[in-house]
Amino acid sequence: MRDARATRKYLPRESPASNLTLKMNPNKALWEKGDFTRIADTMRESGEALVQCLGITKGTKVLDLGCGDGTTALPAAKLGADVVGVDIARNLVEAGNKRARELGLTNLKFQEGDASNLEQLPDKAFDLVVSIFGAMFAPKPFDVAKEMVRVTRPGGRIVMGNWIPNDPTLVAQILKISSSYTPPPPEGFVSPMTWGIESNVIERFAAAGVSAEKISFARDTFTFNFPGSPSGFVDEFRKYYGPTMNAFEAAEKNGQGADLQKELEELFNRQNQGKDATSIPATFLRVTAAV
Ligand SMILES: C[S@@+](CC[C@H](N)C(=O)[O-])C[C@H]1O[C@@H](n2cnc3c(N)ncnc32)[C@H](O)[C@@H]1O
User: Fold this and answer.
1) Residue 159: which H helix or E strand, with range?
2) What local confidence, expressed as pLDDT, does residue 186 receive?
3) 166 CA distance to ligand 1 centroid (A)?
4) Which pLDDT does position 157 carry in this prediction?
5) Who contacts 168 (Cβ-Cβ below 8 Å, separation ≥6)?
6) For residues 10 and 32, what is the distance between their CA atoms, to the nearest angstrom?
């Protein structure tokens, strides 16, 4: 259903001045940079457990926004939902479609798109819009809220999982440590972590027409299970997780790569609850909005 306009938006454009290719959408570049499937592989059990609690039945129309390779989209399809997964990263869309094919799931398709502008999706099309650590990373959070509300049918729900700024658990700390090694973001940049603050969530949904009484919040946990040591898991982030890859690139330029590695290894070791393998729980804000 993607139209030509939506596709064109992501193609590198030509600079009239130099005729050189201009830099691509930095949000897309960030997530295509690494291979998030490597991290997603450690999140499958929590993804399954979360989806089990969403009241999905056969035929429920689900949009999974910022779906990656399907940590929550696949379990939803296995429950019989008709699922569309939308993600900005082409490599993750391809990986998701491959996983769906391998499982013979014909009620699930992944497609490229931007949570800030879902122009390829019609109004009121979904019973449930799920976005677990996905839409929070899109720019223009007010547009994101508006788009999520627009594509949800009246009587439907939006469920978001958002990391919480300054939370002491794993992901908030990885992002905090990483940002301390990275140059300040451009002016006007809104931190994804602001989706983990209840007043911001209320303000964004209010602007999209969903009042505060229709929004509920809960603290929930995702556990990362990695079949190796905590240091081995840090290496996965260093090699495959876009935000950490960028942090290492910036740190190395300043001769601080070893400092960043040490800080992350201390964090992962401190938080690990596994014995023979790594198991690290991370707290997030679960947002449910009734449309
Ligand atoms: C931390 S990953 C989570 C992926 C998946 N929800 C999961 O739990 O495995 C963040 C995802 O959001 C996607 N993303 C980031 N910005 C986006 C945007 N503007 N529109 C759609 N997806 C986006 C990334 O490509 C990535 O797949």
Assistant:
1) strand 152-163
2) 87
3) 21
4) 98
5) none
6) 12
Q: In what order do the strands lie in the sheet with 278-290?
A: 108-112, 82-87, 61-65, 126-132, 152-163, 278-290, 215-226
Stretches in the chain below the pLDDT threshold 70: 1-23
What atom of ligand 1 comes closest to residue 92's alpha carbon? Answer: 27
What is the predicted pLDDT for the residue at 19?
A: 36
Pocket of ligand 1 (CB under 6 A): 27, 31, 36, 40, 43, 66-68, 71, 87-89, 92, 114-116, 132-134, 137-138
Express each pLDDT in 231-243 by its tens digit. 999 999 999 999 9
CA dihedral angle for residue 74, residue 78, residue 81, residue 84, rounded to 10 degrees: 20
Alpha carbon distance 123, 121 (integer Å): 7
pLDDT of residue 23: 57
Q: What residue ranges in 16-69 does DSSP mark as E strands?
A: 61-65
What phi and psi, each to the nearest 5 degrees, are found at residue 265? -65, -40
pTM of the predicted structure, to 2 decimals: 0.91
- Enumerate the H helices of 133-215 as residue ranges: 141-151, 170-180, 198-207
**What is the CA(86)–ligand 1 centre distance, in A?**
9
Give the tens place of pLDDT for each residue, 23-59.
578 899 999 999 999 999 999 999 999 999 999 999 9
Distance between the two ends of the chain, CA-based, in angstroms? 24
> What DSSP element (H or E) covers 6?
helix 4-8
Handedness of CA 130, 136, 141, 143 (dihedral sign): negative
Contact by Cβ (8 Å): 115, 146: no
**How open is the CA angle 152-194-73, to the nearest 5 degrees?**
40
| 39, amino acid identity | I
